[in-house]
C-alpha cells in the first residue's frame, strides 16, 4: 500500500451528474486519483465498505476501474462488485447497489457525451440507496478535492475484469459479475414478459438503437433472446469505446438512423433508443416521435397495465423544465405531482419516502422506484407492456392521451458553447427584470408571471436555489431559461418552450409552428441573440 503525495487540482466540482471532463483531463497526472480519494474521504472513508464499480465502456473505462480498485483496496474497502469487462449500465449499477446492500457505487460515464481520447469521460458516486449523491454529499466531495494532500493506492497487478467470480486485491475481495443477469431478472419481475413475447410472436416489429453504447448487450439479451423479438431488432448493439464515433444521445438529431427507419414507408411498429450509459430513452412510433414529457405522461396514465405497477402510483414527479403533461394525468388520477430541479438526484428523497412511484425529465429520462436512476430499457419495456395490453399503436395512444388531457406542445432549443461571460450576462440581465415582466407584451405574447425556480425538498428540507428562469404567458405558454450543468466546454443555454392546447381541432399540429410565437417572445424578452451573439440554436429537440 502506498501513500502518494498530491496537491489539489482545480476544476473538480461535480455538476448535474458527477464530474465530467475531457478524457485527457481525467487522464492527467493525479486527476482521477485525487477525485477518487476525495470521493472516499467525502463519504466517510472506504474502510470496511462494499462498492459497486462499473461504467459505460467508453475509452479509459477499464484503466480507470483498475485505479479505482487499487485505491479502494488501499483505503481499506472490504469488497468491490464489478461488472464483467468493467461494464455496467447506470440503472444496472443502481440495481446492484440496492440488491447487494453495498455502501455505494462508482459509476464511470459521461452519459450521452461522446467518448474517446478527444471526447469526454466522467465519474460519479451513488449512495447506498442506489441513487446519485445528494447536493450535500457532492459538496463534501468537492471540499475534499480542495484540501487533498495525499491518496492511497495499492501497488498490484491488474484485476482480470473478464473473469467471472472472486479475486483478491490485497485484503479486498473483487467480485466480477454478469452485468446483465440481475437487471434482466428485475425487469422480468416488473413486466409481463409473456404478454410482450406474445406481441412479438404476433408479428409486432421493433427497432432498438443502442447507439454503439452500453445497452447493446442488455437489449439483445432481453428483447431478442428472452422476448423473442426478431434478430436484428437491436441495431448498433456492440458497445465501442467511442460509440462508433457518434454522439450517444437518444434524440431525433443524434439517433437519426433510427428516425429514418421509423419514418420510412416500411417502418416497424415501435422504435426506441438509449444513451451511452443506458439511463436515457427515446420513444418513437411508426412516423410518430414521442417527446420525453409526453412519454412520462403516457406511462403515468397506463403504468397500472404492467404487473409491477398494477396497484397504481403513489405519486409522480417531473423536473421543472419538463412539460406539464404529467401534471394533468396526475390530477385526473388524484395523485400528487412534484416539480423538482433538473437532475435525477432530486427524485431520490421522494422515491425513498414512497411519495412517488414514477418520475421523469424532458432530457429523455424516465424511471420508477425500482432503482434510483432513470432507466432507458425499463421505459422501453413499460411501453412494450402497455402496447401489448392495449393493442393500440403509439400514434393512437398519443392521440387518445391528447384528446383526454390536452396536448402540451413542447420543444427545447440548445445554444451550445456560448461564451460563459455572455451567458451569465444574459441570465443576470433577465433575472434583474423578472419582477417587472408581468403584464408586458413581447412579440405579441403577454407575460402572465415570471420567477426564478427554487426548490424546498419536502422530505429532507434541503433548499436548492437558482434552478432556472421561468416566464408564463397568458394562454398557457411557458418559456424556461436554464444553464446546462453537464457540459464540458463553454456554457450551454437551454431554452424550453411549451404551449398547452386543449382545442380538439388543434391537437395534431407541427410543434415548431405552435411554439414559434413563444420562442419569439422568449428571445425578445431575454435579448438572447444580442447578448450572446447567437441568432439560432445548435440543437433543437
Ligand atoms: C443528466 C442528469 C439528468 C439531467 C440531465 C440534463 O442526464 O442525470 O437528471 O436532466 O443531465 O442536465 P443539463 O444540466 O445538461 O440540462
Ligand atoms: Zn445517461
From TrEMBL:
GO terms for cellular component: cytosol. Its cofactor is Mg(2+). GO terms for molecular function: magnesium ion binding; phosphoglucomutase activity. It comes from the Bacteria. PROSITE patterns: PGM_PMM (PS00710). It is an enzyme of class 5 (isomerase). InterPro entries: A-D-PHexomutase_a/b/a-I, A-D-PHexomutase_a/b/a-I/II/III, A-D-PHexomutase_a/b/a-II, A-D-PHexomutase_a/b/a-III, A-D-PHexomutase_C_sf, A-D-PHexomutase_CS, Alpha-D-phosphohexomutase_SF, PGM. Keywords: Isomerase, Magnesium, Metal-binding, Phosphoprotein. Its EC number is 5.4.2.2. GO terms for biological process: carbohydrate metabolic process. Residues 12-151, 183-284, 293-405 form the Alpha-D-phosphohexomutase alpha/beta/alpha domain. SUPFAM superfamilies: Phosphoglucomutase, C-terminal domain (SSF55957), Phosphoglucomutase, first 3 domains (SSF53738). It catalyses: alpha-D-glucose 1-phosphate = alpha-D-glucose 6-phosphate. PANTHER family: PHOSPHOGLUCOMUTASE (PTHR22573:SF2), PHOSPHOHEXOMUTASE FAMILY MEMBER (PTHR22573). Belongs to the phosphohexose mutase family. NCBIfam families: PRK07564.1-1. This is phosphoglucomutase (alpha-D-glucose-1,6-bisphosphate-dependent). It comes from Pseudooctadecabacter jejudonensis.
